[in-house]
Amino acid sequence: MSEIRTGPVPDTRAELRRAAAGVVAEVTARLRDPEAVVAATVANGTHAEVDDSRSPVWEPGSLNRGYPALALLYAELGRGDAPAGDPAAHRATAHRYLELTAAATKRSPVQGAFSGVGALASAVRAAAVHDGEYASLLHRTDARMADYAHRLAALHTSTRDAGVPTYPAVIDVLSGLSGIARYLLHRRTQDDALRAALTSLTALREPLHVKGTEVPGWWYGPTKRTRVAEEFDDGQANFGLAHGIPGPLALLSLAWHEGARVPGQAEAIESMAEWLLTWREWDEAGPYWTPYLPLRYYADRHGHETPLPARPSWCYGAPGTARALGMAGRALSRPAWTRAGVETVRAMVRRPVDQWGINDHALCHGWSSVLHLLTLCELDHPEAGLGAAADEVAARLLRGFEPDSPFGYRYFQPAADLYLDMPGLLDGAAGIALVLHAYANGRPTASGWDTLLMLN
Length: 456
Known about the structure:
By secondary structure, the protein is mainly α. It has 18 helices and 8 strands. The radius of gyration is 21 Å and the shape is globular.
């Protein structure tokens, strides 16, 4: 990992953690005033200029680009974990951002766990410290999330009955059943909806046929999101935790571990985990997963050039996918699965950093993403020897702090080749601060904010 160093850094982990805590304090001070946050965010771009997805840089009801991300940050800091500052002040700031979120999502539908009412539900759940806190609001969000789970489950059933491939928005972590069910698993107030979600995700173990080729039940049909190139006109197999089969695998495994079980769930976990192991690729550093595969490669694996590793991150790549595999190993007492996941992360660390493809600091697919996943892996598997790698990535993330930018970190937008001031969870400063706070503390998150990412 020595190639990550590009300048002077603290010599010890203790110094790195102190530096991380200092950056967290600075970033959170800059994110405290909602009006200033919104003004700085929209000052340097509009959706037409900066985003090929036509999503605006500021979305008040979005966990990624709006108030809920700030509520999540201050809810975590308000749990009193040193070095967080004044917990009462942080909780008051979290409450203020929750009020703004509730107002912004008042007429919004549920669109998964990261936007609209789903984002409000996720943030409130993390902010509720004591039993009964936000009880009335949680009661309403529980009902809305349960209703959406039933609707997605019915949609999924109709596609299965027709023999049609499913879609990310139906089953993934950001928009689909995996993310919704994670919330329901936390709350356990709507078990009928949770069972419906588990049953739908369990049904993915049944294979499908696409143009004469048997594909797994989690094969995605072609959409704008899944058609990443012409060769994906027949859909894809997706290996990313955010959008692919690792999300349902992690959810089913977490539910099994917590006693929420439906018929066929163990068999589904096993089929998904074994499939991930079968479809690892190999290079001189060791095993890896590519981000997604087209039908031509899936039908004739040895007749085409081997695809490259996915960029290491939460959304795709070795760390996130390995995390899901480890959850499956714990759920069904299959330590070989866990060891395989850890070895894939170790292989990632052995590859030169200039091959990683990381070009920003954000939580979705930047340096903070890798740092948090390495931190979690080290906490669970200290024998894996990943501490030095985590420290090197932390040093790189700390060097990325820009004192002259409004939030301390800027997000690189490849579509427009420019840097944006973003305050949110996946693309912005709140997510980076949450990761640095966890690294500074050296223990699991207090509010469970990373459960939204299906990491715990």
